[in-house]
Amino acid sequence: MRYVHFANQAEIEKLSNVARLFRAIAHAEYVHAGDHYKELKHLEGDLSQIVWQFLDRVIPGKTLSWPLLVRHMR
Fold this sequence. Notes:
Elements: H1 2-12, H2 16-40, H3 47-58, H4 66-73
Helix pairs in contact: 1-2
């Protein structure tokens, strides 16, 4: 969302190439977020279980401090 705002501001300031760059970045972030959604949507359980399962798949064998992780999620 912020990249779209930056693009809009660049358009106002007549910086069309900069605006185009920010719009491209915004689109890439949209696709990136969609990839995360596709990865998470098949997981079952409440949010904490989903996050834990996802992290276990992404970082196999890593031991994370659950209280630390929960604190950063809030």
